[in-house]
Every structure is written in structure tokens, then in C-alpha cells.
């Protein structure tokens, strides 16, 4: 369908005979944000690894933005198609300023030294301003990344991913270790991002998932156990059972 950005069709992946992903199907619309929940070992990380090409599935197809089957492409190609991934641990350049980190990300493959010497284009400058505003890092633009709070570092890294202009952003437990205020701000940031892009958030923090206010998919044993609004999913007896059974 035209409004579908990502379509996983019966994807499976085994590790030494153990089915980490077992016939997983999922449809994500353009401009949709989805929260992925599920107990440890449900397959959430493996699913993200498969979408980004870090792990190759044994079976199934993954269509992105039309006809392209991601399973036929490698990690670098998939990133270039417009899928960005934010891991839990931020990987910013600690000794560079916020602004320079974003400039490096905007310049992409031009390389560190070339970028810092290069006169930035008006388009890059405008984009830098937008990202600083979106991430609320404007007042910190000249600070070294090392001097940011934990939350601000995470936002900087999200900003660096946005610099690559992804259509789909995959985010792994963004609020782990954040204060309540930072958590709220992160929900706001992701909702802002999802106005123009699709976002998949893997998250354990149900308070945060509630704040996101989006459709939830609960994985279990590598497949979808339940899907829908958080209230419906968390009241589903199958979901209650897998969470209580641990
Ligand atoms: P989640 O992120 O939901 O906690 P994972 O995707 O990390 O779940 O793991 C799903 C299952 O697959 C787990 O049982 C895990 O031990 C197994 N698994 C994941 N990656 C590997 C791997 N590289 N080798 C062997 N087993 C793996």
C-alpha cells in the first residue's frame, strides 16, 4: 500500500537452531511512530538488527518505501536508503562542540578535517539551526559534547541521525538512565520527529510508552503477540501472562 513505509513479511532468524525471530510480520505507515515492547529475549534487538541489515534473516521479506527488499541489501546500503539507528549508548565526539558534532553529521562522508575546514553551505546552516531547535540544544551549541547531561547527549545523537535525513528512525531504549524531565522532553522530541518521519522505538519503560501515545506492538518468542493502543495491549491476557511468567 502507498502509505506503508516498512513491511516485514514472515521474517525468521535462527541462531544455532533457536528461533530468535519466528515468522514476524509488521506494517509501519509513513509518518507513523510505533513502540515495540516485549519481555527480554522477545526478539526486539534482533528485529532492529534485521531491518538495518546488521543481521541477515533466514526467511521472509522486508519492503521499504515501495518495492525495495531490504534483505537483499547490506548495512551501508540500507543506511543510505534512509534508515537511521540510534543505539542505547550515545556515540558523540566528546571533545567537539555540539555544533561541530552536528556539522560533522551533516557533512557525512566528507571526513572530519575537510568538514571543519570546509565553508558550510547555506542549506547545511539552515538544517543545523533546525536541528538545534528541534533538539533544544541551541543554548548548548558551543559546549563540548562531554559537558552535556546524559539526556542532552542522547538528543545530540538523535540530532546527528536527523542530519542524515532518514525516512525511518529506529531508536533503542532512548530514556534509559534519564531523569523524569528528560524522559518527557524525549517523548516531545520523538513526537516532533514523527511529524515528518517514521519512528520505531524499542522501550521497556511503560511510563514513557504511555507518554508517546502511539500504537504498541508486543513481541514474544520472535513474533507479534499483541498490537494496538497501550491500554488494550497491556490488558491482553496473553501479554499479562508473558510479563508475569518471568
Ligand atoms: P530482546 O532484544 O527482545 O531482549 P533479542 O533480540 O536480543 O531479544 O534476543 C532474542 C533471542 O535471540 C534471545 O534468546 C537471544 O539470546 C538470542 N540471540 C540474539 N542474538 C543472538 C546471537 N547473535 N547469537 C545467538 N543467540 C542470539
What can you see in these coordinates?
Keywords: ATP-binding, Nucleotide-binding, Transport. One of its GO terms (molecular function) is ATP binding. One of its GO terms (cellular component) is plasma membrane. It comes from Aureimonas endophytica. The chain has 246 residues and is an alpha/beta fold. The protein has 2 domains: 1-82 and 168-246, 3-Layer(aba) Sandwich (Rossmann fold), CATH 3.40.50.300; 96-165, no CATH class. 37% of the residues lie in helices and 26% in strands. Strands 6-7-8-3-9-10 form a 6-stranded mixed beta sheet, with helices on both faces. It is globular. Residues 15, 20, 38, 40-46 line the site of adenosine-5'-diphosphate.
Topology:
Layout: E1 4-15, E2 18-29, E3 33-37, H1 44-51, E4 59-64, E5 68-69, H2 75-80, E6 83-86, H3 98-107, H4 112-117, H5 122-134, H6 150-163, E7 168-172, H7 180-193, E8 198-202, H8 206-212, E9 215-220, E10 223-228, H9 230-235, H10 237-244
Parallel strand pairs: 3-8, 3-9, 6-7, 7-8
Antiparallel strand pairs: 1-2, 1-4, 4-5, 9-10
Amino acid at each position: 500500500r502507498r502509505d506503508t513505509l516498512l513491511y516485514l513479511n514472515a521474517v525468521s532468524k535462527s541462531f544455532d537452531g533457536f528461533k530468535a525471530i519466528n515468522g514476524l510480520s509488521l506494517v509501519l505507515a509513513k509518518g507513523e511512530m510505533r513502540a515495540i515492547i516485549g519481555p527480554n529475549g522477545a526478539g526486539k534487538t534482533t528485529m532492529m538488527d534485521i531491518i538495518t541489515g546488521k543481521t541477515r534473516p533466514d526467511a521472509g521479506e522486508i519492503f521499504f518505501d515501495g518495492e525495495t527488499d531490504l534483505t537483499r541489501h547490506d548495512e551501508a546500503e540500507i543506511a543510505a536508503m534512509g534508515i537511521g539507528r540510534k543505539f542505547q549508548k550515545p556515540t558523540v565526539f566528546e571533545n567537539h562542540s555540539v555544533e561541530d558534532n552536528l556539522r560533522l553529521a551533516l557533512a557525512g562522508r566528507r571526513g572530519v578535517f575537510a568538514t571543519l575546514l570546509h565553508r558550510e553551505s547555506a542549506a547545511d546552516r539552515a538544517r543545523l539551526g533546525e536541528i538545534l531547535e528541534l533538539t533544544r540544544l541551541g543554548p548548548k551549541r558551543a559546549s563540548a559534547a562531554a559537558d552535556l547531561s546524559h539526556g542532552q547527549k542522547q538528543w545530540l545523537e538523535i540530532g546527528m541521525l536527523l542530519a542524515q535525513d532518514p525516512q525511518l528512525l529506529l531508536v533503542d531504549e532512548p530514556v534509559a538512565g534519564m531523569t523524569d524531565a528528560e524522559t518527557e522532553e524525549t517523548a516531545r522530541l520523538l513526537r516532533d520527529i514523527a511529524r515528518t518521519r517514521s519512528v520505531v522505538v524499542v522501550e521497556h519503560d511503560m511510563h514513557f510508552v504511555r507518554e508517546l501515545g502511539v500504537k504498541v506492538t508486543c513481541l514474544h518468542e520472535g513474533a507479534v503477540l499483541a498490537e494496538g493502543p497501550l491500554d488494550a495491549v497491556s490488558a491482553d491476557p496473553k501479554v499479562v501472562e508473558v510479563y508475569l511468567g518471568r
